[in-house]
Amino acid sequence: MTTLASGTDTLTRDALTVLQPGFTGTTAPDWLLRRLGEGLASVGLFGRNIASPDQLAALTAQLRAECDDVLVAIDEEGGDVTRLEVRSGSSFPGNHALGAVDDVELTHQVAHELGRRLAACGVNLNWAPSADVNSDPRNPVIGVRSFGADTGLAARHTAAYVTGLQSAGVAACTKHFPGHGDTAVDSHHALPRIDVRAEVLAERELTPFRAAIAAGTRAVMSAHILVPALDPDRPATLSRRILTGLLRDELGYDGLIVTDGMEMRAIAGTYGIERGSVLAIAAGADAICVGGGLADDATVLRLRDALVAAVRAGELPEARLAEAADRVRALARWAGTAGRPAESTHGTEIGLHAARRALTVTAAPGLGGPDTFKPLTEPPYVAALTPVANIAVGDETPWGVAAELVHLLPGTVTGSFSAGDGPEAEAGERAGRAALEAAGPRRIVAVVRDEHRHPWMASALDTLLAARPDTVVVEMGVPQAVPRGALHIATHGAARVCGRAAAEVIAGVTGR
Question: Under 8 Å CB-to-CB from 176, ≥6 apart: which residues?
Fold first, then answer.
């Protein structure tokens, strides 16, 4: 076995190269810099690592001072899932809003501008877009992260997003293969299962991934889901049948395969992250994403040593590990030579423009349509009916319309209401009564997120609308429930710009 000048043998170096760890803090810790010198080739960033664009640029420069071709990855989908703007909300609508507009050139432009901002901060790999077809409306983890429930729509917008992002010099990582849309379980908590025939999967789930591959996606992220029609025993991330047999051999994909976070319970709770990482590389994955919850040197060393031990024990072919490490380095080389557009070609307002176009506005019967709705002139009471946060989104990112309405209608007041304890219908009725009491004589703007998935939320709206039929309802999730309220605005996502677009309609501000 060759020993490198750094003193790290080839096997150990390859084991480090395939890891994509996270860390805590807004500067790189000493242990991370040390591992970069020993062969670590990728780093994952999260909201906890970002305070401002300037700080992020300084952080990525610090990493590159140690390893000039390091892959710096981030989970920046825009819309509900943002790391660049985790404390303010995104300047870009997410996939569902773009799918609602269904203008592939707009999707390309939004992805290009998002990629341009990432590249300017030194980020060169984005764990996006989500190519999942949101075929199960109960889905608790995908939802507005999907372009929609229509396969063809999801495919054409996935391709447009990939080309737009990569035209800015940032590698796209299309996820979550072979498709996480037809699930009612969040893989952060448990192992989801998709029980459909292989023919359905081929026609529905796989179509957007075929489009992404044809568009040249540089990376694909695996899903921690069990798909018995493809492999009855192992989840996709650990399945050679799925990653090598299907993705590589059948679909002809030759780029980087990245796992979803290995600390997610779907893997960690069943296999453990060390065993899971070995199985993932053996199955055909090239990079192990870890660090959303586990972000320290001890975790990196545990995974490195597990891979090395598996090779020495004959459980993982050394050639497979070397192949995986080579793919990581190949993507790093591409990222190092890709162009970096210095200026925006679509304008910095492209995100707000897209959010405005994504709105669906429905007026109650008898009002003559949304164009005759009389905008609010007095500051309202905004009742946010707040569900438990999706882990992928995080609960630190603000959402809603109140902050935007305050600018347009100074004096706007807001309150947040949730299910609390007890039966959901009763909890919803209590939340509705509490909102009515808090609002007093003010006009009410009720803000919901996936009303169709939360019976308590529907019950709260029943209570509000029975007492105050002039209530304006803003749906910031998937608009699956029947529109109701004096005015119903579906934003198709909860990004800051989606809230701004809805607030403009409520206040009658011309911006569209």
Answer: 130, 131, 132, 221, 222, 223, 225, 260
